Amino acid sequence: MPRTRKGRDVHGWLVLDKPAGLTSNQALGRVKRLLEPKKAGHAGTLDPLATGVLPIALGEATKTVAFAMEGAKVYHFTVRWGVSTDTLDTEGRETARSDVRPTAEAIAAALPAFLGEIEQTPPAYSAIKIDGERAYDLARAGELVELEARTVRIDALSVLGTPGPDKAVLEMTCGKGAYVRALVRDLAAALSAEGHVSALRRLRVGPFGIEQAITLAELEDLVHKGAALERLLPVETALDDIPALAVTGEDVSRLRQGRAIVLLPHQAQELRARRRPRTIAGADASRLVLATHAGEAVALGEMRAGRFQPMRLFRL
Length: 316
What we know:
Distance between the termini: 12 Å
Number of domains: 3
Number of helices: 8
Number of strands: 22
Largest sheet: 9 strands, mixed
Oligomer: single chain
CATH topology of the largest domain: Pseudouridine synthase
């Protein structure tokens, strides 16, 4: 693993089990100090309160972060009834109180209204930028933060249990941009109750699941043993739902020069058959194809008129 003054050549994905009390950027910083990669980033912010899956992209994997962030997310979370807070979680100050304690049956009956594509107003205490400033920074400074509702997709919602009259544990599967805290705020309103998020754990982001996750303590131990890289997933893991095209060594040379390659008729037919509608960062990405050689990602590009045109090269 060559090392330079600017860092190490480390490429791949690390699935971190983020602990409570750290921001996502702080957790990323811990990983960077341990592995010293030249480049690193994370796919999907978790609140300091939250724990669970935080995919960390290292090296060339940073080129696939946008694809990971488009994947479905799965959350387990606990609602504490009776009190609402300005942050919509346990870190805020109390804003309202109520004696209403919704039953599991009442909660379940209210959930269908939040399924599918819905309009959701993000929490004032969120990382959304307003004129270059984070909303949570403005809110903490005492400014009135008004965010516009946006369309989000919630695929599944269920009640996992009610440990007591004051608590309910739920599971949500959703798309990019949906906030658990905003859902709890709106669910409480629908039930004429007050409530906030008292615990939140993310179990999945696209192809990255909690069963693959490693804690910071475990990572530190592996670093000391010289075995940390064994826990990295391949760069192309975030691209698992994009049709793959196996190319020859000669094709690799052409692609790395930014030149298109001609597809054989059967290759084009197979790729078209595996293609499905998708949107990445608001753009139509249904023509995307991943070129691979000897099992490694070479280039991400588009298939058009029987040719593969590289758009993003991977230097592994």
